[in-house]
């Protein structure tokens, strides 16, 4: 009987240790654990460890890593001059670690995988990309891809921000038109360069001939 107090203490210690080990969580830097339950305030665990109370608290996951999004216009979109083009690009989006954005993202992407996040971001990016194409001329699109990409990124900032997402970078890979207008622009540009080079060569040849003639006169 004299051992009963020690047995009780041992059982309590085992119980406490069991709670600690079963409730121990550790989040990597690219994942947020959101713990809710008996506490009034929600706990956000990012890149550190914590202890939750099993059965009384709940852990949910939010992905913070970079998510690659392929963006393309499946059908042709008319530019400002009504030239139909299709655009291929790629963007990297993520949920920012700022608390306000994490709270917004938790409302939309809690326990969702990268595929789901990419699909939602893709819809927003492609819709805005089509709108920006209609505001620019074809030559502006082709010659200023960075400007076009920047406009798309800026136009999606508020809409994605309301979901807790930010665009880290956006790259335009290709412009395609079925009427070969872009190809003809390239041909015209090559012809212009060749013409400039031919004129420069002719002027150089003329200058050399004049200089040679002047040298001959001085020699005579």
Structural description of this entry:
The N and C termini lie far apart (135 Å). The protein contains six helices and nine strands. α3 crosses α5. Strands 6, 7, 8 and 9 form a four-stranded antiparallel β-sheet that branches. It has a three-stranded antiparallel β-sheet with strand order 3-2-5, with helices on one face. The protein has a two-stranded antiparallel ribbon with strand order 1-4.
Please supply descriptive tags for the structure shown above.
single chain; 220 residues; alpha+beta; four-stranded antiparallel sheet; three-stranded antiparallel sheet; 6 helices; elongated
Q: H/E element string? A: HEEEEEEEEHHHHEH
Distance between the termini: 135 Å
Number of E strands: 9
How would you sum up the global shape? elongated
